[in-house]
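Pilot study result, target chain (201 residues):
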Amino acid sequence: MNTYRKRSSKSRQRLGALAWLVTGLAIPSQAGLFNSNFNEDPSGILSLLGTAKWVHSGGVINSGYVSLTDAVNDQQGNILIDDLDGGAPIAGILATFKLRMGGGSGNAADGFSFNFATDLSGSTFSEEGQGTGITVVFDIYDNGGGEAPAIDVKARGVVVRSKLIAKADILTGDEFVDVRIEYRNGLLDVSFKGQLVHQGV
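Predicted structure:
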């Protein structure tokens, strides 16, 4: 996915996923599972909103991928996955995916977020995230307060942990990199590019 564009005044969300695994660790039955390499159109399974689209090739080893935005101004897209556990209580979550946030001329957009919540609106929202659950924000653009570039963890819409990261380190260039987000026993871990960014939040 190419996430570069000149920034406009509106916030934008970015996420490129090649192999995406999301599970809910349900109690006490088998957890729900979504797993895809995106070699086939996932639109019957996922909700692709705004500019989000499936691309049949160009991912890791030239497989398919889902793009939230192209390198064009005023782009905003979301991928939504329905409840995998049919309303059952959730003990934890595990999401692993490949992310590309880069390429192009070097003028990056705002970023993207991963959101796990029961009250997402079903319409597009910014990289700052939405809902009263867990949000992990990959924020590239500093709004003037020195809060970014950073990877933030939010609970109920409030930042509970933030780690500033150099813009060059948060972007991925032309490659897809690993992201792992795991919530278990009341604690959240976030790994990016094989490095543990947040532990035990």
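One observation from the pilot: The two ends are 29 Å apart (CA to CA). A full batch analysis is planned for the follow-on phase.
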